[in-house]
Write a structure and sequence with these properties.
The chain is an alpha/beta fold. 44% of the residues lie in helices and 15% in strands. It is built from 14 helices and 15 strands. The strands form 4 sheets. Strands 1-10-9-6-5-2-4 form a 7-stranded mixed β-sheet, sandwiched between helices. Helix 1 packs antiparallel against helix 11 and helix 2 packs parallel to helix 11. The structure holds pyridoxal-5'-phosphate. The site of pyridoxal-5'-phosphate has 14 residues, from helix 3. Pyridoxal-5'-phosphate binds next to helix 3.
């Protein structure tokens, strides 16, 4: 079975668990500061603040920007659904703007159509690592006096010209979740060039206790999970969990297993060390996996369309997501029978417009129906890539 995701296991991570046990408070502080400085340098901004998760970074940024009850924030209609209740929870009103069906991203036109008297900000995602038209969105935001926040959870290392994404908005957030490019086994980063905003963010997290154990526990759990996914038993378990009548079984299982693993405390020395190492690998990782992405994309059969990722800049690699015009539930089942674990629907991302009572985000709805997450990662060998392509070609023949 080829799993849809793999987490790179690095023996150095486990060495860091050991080293962390002998770390003084003073040294831990230095480690976290070193990580933040490296992150700020990588994004080309003045300030980076390491926090508990990408979502935590988002909430802290929205609060620090001074948004209040009843203020409207324009968000992509196609994004991570779990962000919506968090935005709404602070009294903000998320207003979805449609995405472009070829880039999967917001455009200045779709956002402009949603600007009204209560709009205070634009929350722009670089979907699956592809830079959105953030320069156009910056101009639009400035002409209406709006704040611009970049969701860079998928896009660390993506850039426009020589400028990395994350330096165009008033602030940006990054995720250090285990499934993202710079994994620190949980955690997030808020970045900004605004010294005042940075101070507010630092003050908000200053009194959080630094606890090493949650991220270490997660690293150990992830190691076991990886070993399980690599075992032959996984194929059987996956078949049970992904059967068509239990289409969301895996998702539910995954969320339950991970819900209690959310890292909630202050950023730890262990996370800083692991994160620093992963950050240094980002340019090479993106280069390698973008080449692999292109090679696969070039050989897709009819009926499968790839995301246009390079319209506004150089993409980062996050996931290999394509659009399929077939019956996705059936396609996933057939792929699974051919030994390939693919994701569909909410396992890829979410069309959030209906939950917010907007019925006019047609491209987002289409992506919600058509997006297919296929396996692609560093140690997906050449024979396995051929197996994947062979399976997709068979699906195309079956549909014809
Ligand atoms: C992963 C992700 C985040 C932040 O995630 P955390 O799991 O809280 O670190 C934010 N936006 C998108 C689109 C994401 O995929």
């Amino acid at each position: 079975m080829i799993p849809r995701r793999r987490i790179a296991l690095d023996p150095a991570d486990l060495r860091d668990v050991w080293r962390t046990l002998w770390t003084s408070q003073a040294q831990a502080k230095k480690d976290v500061s070193a990580f933040e400085a490296a992150f700020a340098a990588a994004v080309g901004v003045d300030h980076a603040i390491a926090v508990a998760s990408g979502r935590d970074a988002m909430r802290l940024i929205l609060q620090a920007l001074g948004f209040g009850r009843g203020d409207e924030l324009i968000v992509p209609a196609y994004t991570l659904g779990e962000l919506v209740p968090l935005i709404g929870g602070d009294g903000l009103i998320p207003v979805p703007a449609d995405v472009d069906p070829t880039t999967f991203n917001l455009t200045p036109e779709t956002v402009a159509a949603r600007i009204g008297p209560k709009t205070r900000g634009i929350f722009a995602l670089h979907a699956f690592g592809a830079p959105c038209d953030i320069v156009g969105l910056r101009k639009l935001a400035d002409s209406h006096g709006l704040k611009l926040i970049e969701d860079c959870a998928h896009a660390v290392g993506a850039h426009i010209g020589h400028q990395p994404v994350g330096c165009f908005g008033d602030a940006a957030l990054f995720s250090l979740e285990a499934t993202k490019a710079v994994s620190a086994f949980g955690g997030g980063v808020a970045t900004t060039n605004d010294a005042q905003l940075a101070n507010r963010l630092r003050t908000a997290v200053a009194n959080r206790p630094r606890r090493e154990w949650p991220a270490i526990k997660k690293a150990l759990f992830k190691t076991f999970e990886e070993l399980a996914v690599r075992s032959p038993l996984y194929a059987i378990a996956a078949r049970l969990l992904f059967s068509p009548d239990r289409a969301s079984g895996f998702d539910r299982f995954y969320r339950q297993a991970h819900g209690h693993l959310r890292v909630a405390a202050g950023f730890s020395a262990f996370q800083a060390r692991v994160g620093l190492r992963k950050l240094a690998n980002v340019p090479q990782r993106n280069a390698r996996l973008n080449v692999a992405w292109q090679a696969l994309a070039a050989e897709l059969p009819d009926g499968f369309t790839t995301q246009r990722r390079d319209l506004h800049g150089e993409p980062a690699f996050y996931n290999f997501v394509v659009r399929s015009n077939g019956d996705l539930t059936r396609q996933r089942m057939r792929l699974q029978q051919m030994g390939i674990d693919a994701g569909i629907g909410g396992e890829v991302m979410d069309d959030i417009a209906p939950t917010l009572d907007y019925g006019d985000c047609h491209a987002s709805a289409q992506l919600g129906r058509e997006a297919l997450l296929l396996p692609l990662y560093d140690d997906l060998s050449a024979p396995r890539r051929r197996q994947l392509l062979g399976a997709l070609h068979r699906l195309a023949q079956e549909a014809a």
